Amino acid sequence: MKKERKLIIAGNWKMTKTVAEALHLVDDLKTELAEIEAVDIAVFPPFTALSEVAKAIHSSNIHLGAQNMSEHNIGAHTGEIAAQMLKELSVRYVILGHSERRQDQKESDELISKKAQAAHAASIQPIICVGETLAEREAKRMEKVLETQVRGSLNGLSKDQAVNTIIAYEPVWAIGTGKTATTAQVQEAHEFIRGLLVKLFDESVARRVRIQYGGSVNPSNARELTSLPDVDGALVGGASLEARSFTEIVKNSSKEKNREELRGFLKI
Ligand code: PEP
């Protein structure tokens, strides 16, 4: 299947950064990454910093994302944030179903699919996270788990919405652990997910959906991982919290020729 997708490198800041710290980080990123065009770049600050970061990156090549949102549009949902409220702040992407939320808030695939539909209704692109735990991988249940999560979380999306959805494959055992999946494991999982998209939608949709890898991506492994044929970028946690490491990840990933080199090397 020919690759025709632009890479996207996303920095998930999780529950870190005051507004002042967030502004400091994006100021550095804006300077360091100003020349990058080959890759979509997005940062995902906590809700409290979205508004100020939105102003700081206005008319730069860095886009804004949120780490979560409600499945509801308005009403009595204390503590929740609706898609339109994010849209008002120029939020372009929203992470849904991160494994930390699947674990801590017990988010289900059904809930994630509702949120994805609400995001699309507000023209926000969801990044839907899927991935197996170590126990599931060891029990050889990876494919079953990924199939359940992808089917359930993308349920109800039209083909057009699916094309504008990003999937992040994040093996839970690789998140924040310093343990990166091997290139073979990553390519295998991404290829499997793309195959599922053919079954759920069609070949043309599957060819256009971007699938990011997430799990201890750093400046040294970014190039190899993002060069894999079915990997269309990275969702980065820890290494996105510091300007130098995130910049290096973006720059190392942006070398288009990497893919050609690696393809030759892997004989793909
Ligand atoms: C993540 O939070 O989605 C993530 C992949 O974190 P880390 O890069 O720290 O493993």
Q: Could you explain how this protein is built, in words?
A:
There is one protein chain. The chain is of the alpha/beta class. Helix content is 46%, strand content 15%. Helix 1 (19-33) runs parallel beside helix 2 (47-57), helix 5 packs across helix 7 and helix 7 (142-153) crosses helix 9 (183-200). The termini are close together. 44% of the residues are buried. Bound molecules: phosphoenolpyruvate. Residues 12, 170, 175-176, 214-217, 235-239 line the site of phosphoenolpyruvate (PEP).
Which terms would index this structure?
single chain, 268 residues, alpha/beta, 8-stranded parallel barrel, 8 strands, 46% helix, 15% strand, globular, binds phosphoenolpyruvate
In short:
With 268 residues, the protein is an alpha/beta fold. It has helices at residues 19-33, 47-57, 83-88, 99-104, 109-121, 134-138, 142-153, 159-163, 183-200, 203-208, 222-226, 243-253, 257-266, and strands spanning 7-12, 39-44, 62-66, 93-96, 125-130, 166-169, 210-214, 233-236.
Helix content: 40-55%
Count every helix, treating DSSP H or I runs of 4 or more residues as helices.
13
Oligomer: single chain
Low-confidence blocks of residues: none
Topology:
Layout: E1 7-12, H1 19-33, E2 39-44, H2 47-57, E3 62-66, H3 83-88, E4 93-96, H4 99-104, H5 109-121, E5 125-130, H6 134-138, H7 142-153, H8 159-163, E6 166-169, H9 183-200, H10 203-208, E7 210-214, H11 222-226, E8 233-236, H12 243-253, H13 257-266
Parallel strand pairs: 1-2, 1-8, 2-3, 3-4, 4-5, 5-6, 6-7, 7-8
Helix pairs in contact: 1-2, 1-12, 5-7, 7-9
Bound molecules: phosphoenolpyruvate.
